[in-house]
Amino acid sequence: MSFLTNASIEVPITINAPPATVRKVLLDFARWPEWKNKQNIINHLHVKTSDDSTVLVQDAQAGDVMYIDSVQSGAVTAEVYVNNEQTFGYIGKAYGFTARHSWVMQPGAADAETTLFKHCEQFSGPTAWAFGYCSPLRPWIRGLFAAFNEDLKAAVESGKFC
């Protein structure tokens, strides 16, 4: 019965820039309002360390706390679990589920000048079924992720945010 307590969503896109460039644009949260046009997944986000200092997201460490105001779950806190050259991820809880969110940036199959960007979320817990294959929420979340990916691709490929 794990399909009732586990679900995952992954939305990939190829971006015509190296992973380091994609990462630089993606993790510059202060500039998101300048380029996110098609979606509004995250309205506000900032990261604090264990000593309550605010840090740039690109400098976040595993264990740092993120404060997120998102379309999906409103105002929540989450914990950074990975921040390296290839992946930025955080884990949060809301409404009876745990969400493990990640952005993965891999060199493209064709060459290192492209990036396979994956927008991912894994849900677990008693209400994770709400994001499963038959759920009406699933296409909505996939649509938000796809629109975010398109905005990120346009921002990176424009060269204005690099």
TrEMBL record:
SUPFAM superfamilies: Bet v1-like (SSF55961). It holds the Pfam family Polyketide_cyc2. InterPro entries: Polyketide_cyclase/dehydratase, START-like_dom_sf. Coiled coil: none annotated. CDD domains: SRPBCC_4. PANTHER family: CHROMOSOME 9, WHOLE GENOME SHOTGUN SEQUENCE (PTHR36166), SRPBCC DOMAIN-CONTAINING PROTEIN (PTHR36166:SF1). This is Polyketide cyclase/dehydrase.
